[in-house]
UniProtKB/TrEMBL annotation:
Source domain of life: Bacteria
Protein name: DUF58 domain-containing protein
Species of origin: Flagellimonas olearia
Domain DUF58 per the UniProt entry, residue ranges: 47-268
Amino acid sequence: MNIRSELHKAPLFKNLELLANQIVEGFISGIHKSPFHGFSAEFAEHKIYNPGESTKHLDWKLFARTDRLYTKRYEDETNLRCHMILDNSASMYYPEVKNPSIDNLNKIGFGVLSIAALMQILKKQRDAVGLSIYSDTYNFYANEKSSERHFQMLYSKLNEVSVTKEKSEITKTYTFLHQIAEKMHRRSLIFLFSDMFQTEIEEEKLFEALRHIKYNKHAVVLFHLLDQEHEMNFNFENTPKRFVDVETGTHIDLYAENIKKRYTQEVENYTNALRLKCAQYKIKYVGVDVRSNVSQVLNTFMVERQKFV
């Protein structure tokens, strides 16, 4: 039996961690341990003590046996601090997907799977991961840790998100980005997964929130998740259709072709403004089509991690 093939066909979120691991293994073979050393993880080796160094990590038991001073050297368990931010507002559940699979994802599914895959890489690297989830409220926050128990808790939360659709009516992304920024005290690599849609179009407030989250020398990457076919290109059959706002429930009946040109221009203008502001604030902007695979996210991570460390 081809395990990878079976996983791809299986209900996605029943096998989230396993599938994420398969994706990572398929993406990159072998992630080397960090050459950096600190004193926060497992014991690695001894080195001879040099006068003037801190005596905090002297191995006194070894001194009793050898009458020589050695210090313990450890592999740094938290070489990198990484915080994932997931937009869980109602618009992230577009397009409607009854049986999500790796080849059939909506925005929230793509975000969940991407974060799960990134967590697998970070776990292998012994890095610390935190997670924030917001919709119409700041639903969940976990600071950066690297323990197995912590990772399992995050996977459990991601599983919960993937099967529970939010019914939020008002999403003020900028409000929660400000709150998250206030919690980030130590320099971190921050990934934001969002469609950046909100019911109240207040672009300047949103841009200020992005600027705030970049504060304190954080490195920030925005993965702008959209269904390219429909949300960007507005490709629908030219028959009478009812378009429903997934956040407010309001609707409008029209022919898609009648507004396609105006719609695509407005979306392009907004996306360009967002991209320019990200460049201004030195935030990495990555436009992502949720119909594609997560390799674009993983590639971006590998590049940004090297820059960060």
